[in-house]
Design a protein that fits this description.
The protein has a domain at 35-93: 434 Repressor (Amino-terminal Domain). Helix content is 62%, strand content 0%. The chain has six helices and no strands.
């Protein structure tokens, strides 16, 4: 418990600009993702992909048809699914 509290204190110090030795790394969210290509790579139907990874089926269809685009967190998740689908499945079911 003490470690969690200390970690939170360090995060707060860092957010306020203190140099407390906390290491950070900025990650760039991808600008675009080919949702259909990721899904096809896994050999899943739209319904299977949506159910497996927790996406709304209508949103998935809109992304694939170019009517809408995934927001930042969804793009990030899609990139992780593309790179390590088993890790995402394990995290979501585990």
């Amino acid at each position: 418990m003490h470690e969690i509290i200390r970690g939170m204190e360090q995060a707060l110090e860092h957010a306020k600009g203190a140099d407390n030795g906390t290491k950070t790394r900025q990650v760039r969210v991808p600008d675009n993702v080919d949702v259909a290509a990721i899904r096809r790579k896994l050999g899943l139907s739209q319904t299977e992909f949506a159910l497996r990874f927790g996406f709304n089926l209508a949103s998935l269809r809109n992304w694939e048809q170019g009517r809408r685009f995934p927001d930042g967190p969804a793009r990030t998740l899609l990139k992780v699914i593309d790179a390590a689908p088993e890790a995402v499945e394990s995290a979501l079911t585990g």
